């Protein structure tokens, strides 16, 4: 028996715009030769996938359990190099989207940080305190946040290939 594809789980868990956006994101990943594999680190019962390009992590996609009353989906881009977005040029609206989707450690023990607390990071030219090790968390992204997440995947793919992504062109959506 083959393992269920992410598209099948999206169809079971999400509806409406959330489903359309999630499927569009997965389509973008597949069109860019990304490998989508179940990620069972948090348990077999979780709907989590890790996305890779040439064996390098690009992002994680999480779907909430169908019994959860806040049915949602989340994109967590790889942050092995959180400096990658330190100086990228972007308009103010896109910077706000990025800053609004940061994972901030509020209680110092979110579990995503190696020391249990976030660190100070420069993101799109702004110094921000208590940023989690998994710096971004796009939960139920709207169309603009989804475009930003897709662009982040394109940048990560360029890094894996070994190609520099021009910062002045990075976020012209």
Strand order of the largest sheet: 1-2-3-4-8
How many domains? The number is: 1
- What's the count of strands? 8
Structural class: alpha+beta
Residue-averaged pLDDT: 80
Approximately how much beta-strand content do the residues carry? 25-35%
**End-to-end Cα distance:** 41 Å
Low-confidence stretches: none
Describe this structure in words.
- It contains four helices and eight strands, in the order H-H-E-E-E-E-H-E-E-E-E-H.
- The chain is of the alpha+beta class and 173 residues long.
- Strand 1 and strand 2 form a beta hairpin.
- The longest helix is centred in the C-terminal third of the chain and has 19 residues, at 143-161.
- The model has no long low-confidence stretch (mean pLDDT 80).
Provide a quick synopsis of the model.
Helices cover 30% and strands 26% of the residues. With 173 residues, it is an alpha+beta fold.
Helix-strand blueprint:
Layout: H1 6-13, H2 16-31, E1 35-38, E2 47-53, E3 56-63, E4 73-77, H3 92-100, E5 102-104, E6 119-123, E7 126-136, E8 138-139, H4 143-161
Antiparallel strand pairs: 1-2, 2-3, 3-4, 4-8, 5-7, 6-7
Helix pairs in contact: 1-2, 2-4
